[in-house]
Amino acid sequence: MIRLFKIASALLIAIGLLQTCSDSGKDPIVEETPVIELIHINLNWNLADTSYNKVEAKIVDPQGVENIDSVMITILNPGGQVVMVDRLHDDGAYNHPNDGDVIAGDGVFSNRFNAASDIGSTVGDYLVEIQAFDFDGNQSDISDTTIHFGYSYTVEFVDIQKPDTLKSGAEAEYIYVALMHPEGLSSIENVSFNLYAHNSTALLETIEMFNDGDFNNSGDLIAADSVFSFKMDSTFAAGYKGLYDIEFTVTDAFGSVTKSVKFYLFLENEVAGIVELSVPDQMTRPTVPNTIVRELITAKIADPQGLGDIDSVYFYLKKPDGAFANSGNAFILVDNGKPFNLQTWYENAGDVTADDGIYSLSIFFYNTNDAGEYELSFYVRDKSGNLSEVLIDTLEVL
After folding, report:
1. 176 forms bridges with which residues in the sheet?
2. How far apart are CA 299 and CA 281, in angstroms?
3. What is the rounded CA–CA span in Å between residue 366 and residue 361?
4. I need a surface site. Which of 9, 57, 254, 280 has the fewest CB within 10 A?
5. Closest C-alpha among 135, 6, 21, 118 to residue 69
């Protein structure tokens, strides 16, 4: 009997040990609850707009997107009453053609709603709640955000002040736009102006205006008042020359855009010039084959529209026999701050400091190059197409 008891006890201990080993080898518990990773929703809904507002929610489920049963959206009015309960869909707009969903089965659930017709007409802040449910009975946390219902109004341009001409080399000109919005200036999201080629719809650039009170940088005198400003100096004309049209645009919190009439603006752009040139008077060819002698050529450039207007700085090199070196092509100087490298001399030219307006190129000779006087003809071209007068220097190679 005692022996049987010992055997039974041993078996029980063995079973316990096996159970312990089995439990220790189990995989960790996997979280099964769906998660709302991201919500995309317009935070301002225009009650006067007949278009629809799209709501999107990115859902992740550990068992895969196919395990998502439904994604619900609930909207409560400013008084806290539920005014809408609906679903978001991930069907690529197949089963629900108006839901705005783009790709079926990608975990992004979508639907579109009109503020006035689908929900109500009360101005105020509405609470939006989104929650996901899976087929296993699990549900995500509620993700909520607040959106504003209101009416978009046309902004009134009270006053516009601008120059007719931006002089080349001008230190500063100022553009001011005074606005009025029925719901207050806090409803204005952005003020800018578009630059067009004259009498054309070709948009060249959109420039933001400011209401920050930073007069030195933006030209604005008082922050958060009714006047938006832009400080324009001659660098604005970099790459431009002649007559252009500008049009002011105001975008409010609901995405409504109000445009002004177009005004003309003449942009002067004068040619750049070489203010200082450094070319060695003489260079002596090396006596050892396959070696070089090198000197750095530099040209200091000034442009009334700033260095951003410089397109290229270059010279042509005429040899002692009257023929042009480099098959008659120009040698391009660079302002990139890269040290000299013989293998890539046209890029790694030996320029000392990048973007300082001093353009550089190393000139070098082998013992096989011709001796005599070399003539260098320098030019500067800007981005508006202006070409400087030629500046000629000579170099004697011994």
Report:
1. 161, 229
2. 15
3. 17
4. 9
5. 135
Task: Write down the mean pLDDT value for the chain.
Answer: 89
In terms of Cα–Cα distance, which of 339, 350, 393, 394 is closest to 372?
Answer: 394
d(CA 305, CA 234): 5
The letter for the amino acid at 198 is H
What CA–CA distance (Å, rounded) separates 94 from 104?
8
What is the pTM assigned to this prediction?
0.67
* pLDDT > 60? residue 25: no
360-387 tens-digit pLDDT: 999 999 999 999 999 999 999 999 999 9
Quote the CA–CA distance of 250 and 62 in Å, as a whole number. Answer: 45
Instruction: Work out the pLDDT band at 69, boundaries 50, 70, 90.
Output: very high
| Rounded Cα–Cα distance for residues 157 and 191 (Å) | 11
